[in-house]
Amino acid sequence: MEITQYNTDDVLARQLKLADENYRLLKTRQVRAINVMGPVGVGKTSLIVRLIERFIPCGVKVAAIAAAAVGDEDHQRFLETGARSINLTTGEDGHIDATGLNRALLALDLAGINVLFVENVPGIISPVDYPLGTGDEIVVIAATSGGGAMRKYPRIFTQTDLVVVNKIDLAAATGVKTETMSADYARINPHGRIVFADAKHGSGIDELLAALGFECDSKW
Amino acid sequence: MEITQYNTDDVLARQLKLADENYRLLKTRQVRAINVMGPVGVGKTSLIVRLIERFIPCGVKVAAIAAAAVGDEDHQRFLETGARSINLTTGEDGHIDATGLNRALLALDLAGINVLFVENVPGIISPVDYPLGTGDEIVVIAATSGGGAMRKYPRIFTQTDLVVVNKIDLAAATGVKTETMSADYARINPHGRIVFADAKHGSGIDELLAALGFECDSKW
């Protein structure tokens, strides 16, 4: 007979229990949390920075959790905006899990925070298997990468309802057609919304805020 | 007491044993196998197609294994070149493992094959944990994604000795400096080699062939 100290069912059960705890904690503190997923180098951090820059003059208090195997490059970018931030070292894990988010939430001062961005570890496969307890999820991809991800690895796109195609300023140079990406996405997720953005130059940010249901005069 | 039917040590041991079997099988058949890793949408398939196009007129016999959660888009692109190809459905796995490669090798007719490309599941974290038994490994990233991956998720770059920065034609448009990427890579892997390529327009392919030690008049 072979034994281990735990079985995988219990690991999953523990994750779901912690995700539920995270959800309740965020709800009690009236924090709207957004899990931002997507491959490496598509501009997740830049997009979050742009959103934070819009929130600040509206009086919305923002915090952001950055993940990295090593270092704190994204965390420093979040701090530069004036937002509260925590750097979550994820080591060899291909995702943030509910345990990691729970630790970050306990370490972060949530008092007065309205919106929390959780920038996940880059990837389009592993992160979707780990529920965190955030109320919202966004998948960011890049126009420069084409739409192959949606056709070949559709699950993350079917399980979230908002996809941002960033770096749209480079779509023409890469021969990527936005209509093809929209059609691919509509086939995979007929209920989903697709927003084309260029975080570097600031376009598409209003559409993204609208898709998330944010307005400057929202009640916080 | 909690029990499972297997323990993780045995899974790893089985993977290493199968990777060793794959290595011996490839060596016996005199097939040089190259594991091509990297994030989604960086042009791994395009790069392999360009290499195959160079090999064919040299009389080098090539096969390629494509991975996908669903569909066979990349597999069809390999078949169009005239190369032998197998489509490996990887489902929710974030990597090809030694079991998957073993099945593909047994399904593929290796007779007369000189070079085998194994295009891994997209990602920069999970694939590096799964030794396959291939003799060579390449990591492909895109200039359009910047060099953040190397700084934030360095492990795959330290464990392989050849990185291809593809889509270099778009480096200027994205503000990415090749010298910065070269310096970042040299810091992480002083023994590694970095090749800048543009698979779409065919540049950098000669440098990549040279880095892999291939010449048209090589003895096969």
Explain what you see.
The structure is a homodimer of 220-residue chains. With 220 residues, chain A is an alpha/beta fold. Helix content of chain A is 37%, strand content 18%. Chain A has helices spanning 8-28, 44-55, 73-80, 98-107, 148-152, 155-158, 171-174, 178-188, 205-211; strands at 32-37, 62-68, 84-89, 115-119, 136-142, 162-166, 193-196. A seven-stranded parallel β-sheet of chain A has the order 3-2-4-1-5-6-7, sandwiched between helices. In chain A, α1 runs parallel beside α4 (98-107). The first copy, chain A, starts with 7 loop residues before the first helix and ends in a 9-residue tail after the last helix. The model of chain A is unreliable at 1-6 (pLDDT under 50). Chains A and B meet through α5 of A and α5 of B.
Write the layout of secondary structure elements.
The structure is a homodimer of 220-residue chains.
Chain A: H1 8-28, E1 32-37, H2 44-55, E2 62-68, H3 73-80, E3 84-89, H4 98-107, E4 115-119, E5 136-142, H5 148-152, H6 155-158, E6 162-166, H7 171-174, H8 178-188, E7 193-196, H9 205-211
Parallel strand pairs in A: 1-4, 1-5, 2-3, 2-4, 5-6, 6-7
Keyword list:
7-stranded parallel β-sheet, 220 residues, disordered N terminus, alpha/beta, 18% strand, homodimer, globular, 9 helices
- End-to-end separation of chain A in angstroms reads 57 Å
User: What's the β-strand tally of chain A?
Assistant: 7
The biggest sheet of chain A amounts to: 7 strands, parallel
Residue-averaged pLDDT of chain A, rounded?
A: 92
Q: Major sheet of chain A: order of its strands?
A: 3-2-4-1-5-6-7
Protein chains sharing the most extensive interface: A-B, 48 and 48 residues
Helix content of chain A: 25-40%
Q: How do the helices and strands follow one another from N- to C-terminus of chain A?
A: HEHEHEHEEHHEHHEH
What's the Cα radius of gyration of chain A?
17 Å
DSSP strand content of chain A:
15-25%
Shape of chain A: globular
How many helices of chain A in DSSP terms? 9
Structural class of chain A: alpha/beta
Catalogue the unreliable spans of chain A.
Answer: 1-6
From the structure provided, what is the oligomeric state, counting identical versus distinct chains? homodimer
